Amino acid sequence: MFKKVTAFLIIAALVVAGGFYAFKSLLPPPKKEAQGPVYSTAKVIRGDISVGVETSGPLYPNSSGGIMVPYNPESQGMLSYIIDEVLVKAGDTVQAGQVLVRLRAPNIQTELENLQKQLETAKKALADKLGTTPDKLYEVDPSKGITLTAPIDGRVFGFSAKEGNEIKEGEIVAKIVNDSKFKLLAKLYPGEFAVAKDYKKAFLRFNVYEGVLEGEVVDVNDEPVTEAAGGTDYTGEKMYQYVYYMTIEGKNPGLIQPELTAYVGLAKEGVKNPESPDVLWLKYPSKVEGFAEEESVFSTVTARVTKVFVKERSKVKKGDPLIQLAGSDVRDYILEEMKKISELESKMYKLQNQLSMLEIRAPVSGVVADFNATVGKTVNMGEWLGNIFNPDDMTMWCQVDDIDILLVKQGSPVKVTLDALPGKTLEGSVVFISPMGKDQSGISRFEVNIKVKGTPELKPGMQAKAYIEAGSAKNVLLVPVEAVFEEDGQPKVEVLNPDGTTKVVNVELGLMNDRYAEIKSGLNEGDEVVTGSSFDVLPSQHIKTDRLLPGQNGNQGSGTGNQNSGGK
């Protein structure tokens, strides 16, 4: 019995001892009472730093041009055109000035032709009155009135104008006669006509001129004319007969004048002797009707003669002045006619401009977008047909919050990327910063426009990301931003001394991003700054470091820096 009790006690003792050992092994070791804080540190390093602002937004063309039906503000009424030919489509790349669409304007051409005829008639009428040519109308001085000129070379006949005399419109001022050739009307009886109707040569005998002059048949009237025969029949009635007429011209030796009579001989070409039996001498003589070339000069207005340039029988050349007509009425008349001509020319100019606008050209180089043009469609002046944008010159619209907006400056360089173009970075610059922000969900945001040097792949509306560079510095002293704090407006850092003690140092800051701050003064390269300590840790947290209490040896903490600090 005793052995059983003893065994049981031994077993119970072992169980209690084992449980107590297990319980002790599960408890954490007792904490050592700390003699000071544990620090997390970093060394002051030398490196590069850049500061910037990240944002995003859509891309829009910075330069574009509308494709429009040409518009002439001087045209009267709204003209319509018909699209005759479409040469491009949406998405095509075009150059400035390239023809995109050709139009038709059926009514313009007809109206232009009518105006052209009216203008030519008006110019010729005024030029004739002024004694000039249509192309010299604008050289005329209205104050000098109208100068009547010789229409042909010749001599002046029937001229009686004197200075101060009034001449009525339509009155004959003179006749200009070219007396180097005379004109004679020969009368042939039916029998003579039957023989000589095809003869072209004529021989003429004048009483005032010795010998025979040669002439040329220039016109033959094939239709007979009835005339009195010079007698009566047995009943006492006048007798009539048929006759034919030929017009003959000859060179005037100087003595031939109108009303002179001549006997006419007709012959074939090649007959040189007037006495030849091949010459048919007509029965009756013929009269000189006048000269081959003569023109009357009429007054084109009612006015007074202010100057006389010729006399009766003066020899003149075509265009030589005969008389000058002047006065306020004449001046007003010339001005009024010139005004009418100017109005016609103005209408023609406008129509010609409209006719020249039958081609729609690209206003700028770029890519065709939103193009709405089909053959046969009727369009009006100024109608919008599409748009051309330049993908090489784009604008990015974005917003920046009130914290970062002070970092954004006019002209700041920008790096632009797009998810649609992986691996490609575009250059840009800030061209506009809104002076006033807009509240969005309690955050003030400022509009920023960025000019982007694009590529042909870009399209309006694409989303892009931008990194706006706010500054950079190379080979400067850097500390983690966690090491910097501020007291009374002065930036400071805490430096860990070699003996484990710390001191607070005032510093001058330069650039700062979300990782590092530039130190312009107050620290040296290699100084060890405090980025955190056990004082900053909650009671339930522990600093995982081998750093010992002040005065003990060990690692310097987790303060190693990046030799090349980047921005956001």
UniProtKB/TrEMBL annotation:
One of its GO terms (cellular component) is membrane. It holds the Pfam family BSH_RND. Keywords: Coiled coil. It comes from the Bacteria. CDD domains: biotinyl_domain. Residues 545-568 are annotated as: Disordered. Residues 475-532 form the Multidrug resistance protein MdtA-like C-terminal permuted SH3 domain. It is found in: Cell envelope. Gene3D superfamilies: 2.40.30.170, 2.40.420.20, 2.40.50.100. Signal peptide: none annotated. Residues 296-387 form the Multidrug resistance protein MdtA-like barrel-sandwich hybrid domain. NCBIfam families: RND_mfp. Belongs to the membrane fusion protein (MFP) (TC 8.A.1) family. This is Putative efflux system component YknX. It comes from Thermovenabulum gondwanense.
